[in-house]
Amino acid sequence: MFTERQIEIILNQRELSQIKFNITKGAYYRQVSQSRNKLMALFYSIVLLRGLGILLPDDVDVMSRLSEQVAVIKDSDVFPEREEQVLDVIDKLIHQTCDM
């Protein structure tokens, strides 16, 4: 969905990253625009899926808790094994949620 560069740019725009980019200004702002459009599409999709009852309140709660786990990993020195376990749980829950 997002390229590695787009994720770096989103983090940079939110002042969550200290990465300095080695690209032209035009390319940077094109990536910013593409990233913004993808984020907007993602949010519209969540609203639509939630409104249609495809994405249930429990699904949103699970996503919120998973997001908190990602934040914990990001903000701490988690062992790689533990990080891998959390990512595996995230993957399983997303697949389970998408099974209709």
Structural description of this entry:
With 100 residues, the chain is mostly helical. The protein folds into two domains: 1-54, no CATH class; 56-100. The chain is built from four helices and no strands. The chain has helices at residues 4-13, 25-51, 57-74, 80-98. The longest helix has 27 residues, at 25-51. The radius of gyration is 16 Å and the shape is flat.
> How many E-type strands?
0
Low-confidence spans? none
The radius of gyration computed from the alpha-carbon positions, rounded to a whole number of angstroms, is 16 Å
How many domain modules? Answer: 2
Structural class: mainly alpha
Helix content: over 70%
So how many helices?
4
What is the straight-line distance between the termini?
A: 22 Å
Q: In sequence order, what are the helices and strands, one letter per element?
A: HHHH
Strand proportion? under 5%
For the sheet with most strands, the description reads: none
Mean pLDDT: 81
Q: How does the overall form come out from the CA principal axes? A: flat
Layout: helices, strands, pairs:
Blueprint: H1 4-13, H2 25-51, H3 57-74, H4 80-98
Helix pairs in contact: 1-2, 3-4
Summary tags:
4 helices, 100 residues, mainly alpha, 2 domains, flat, 74% helix
Briefly characterize the structure.
The chain has 4 helices and no strands. It has helices at 4-13, 25-51, 57-74, 80-98. Helix 1 packs across helix 2 (25-51) and helix 3 packs antiparallel against helix 4 (80-98).
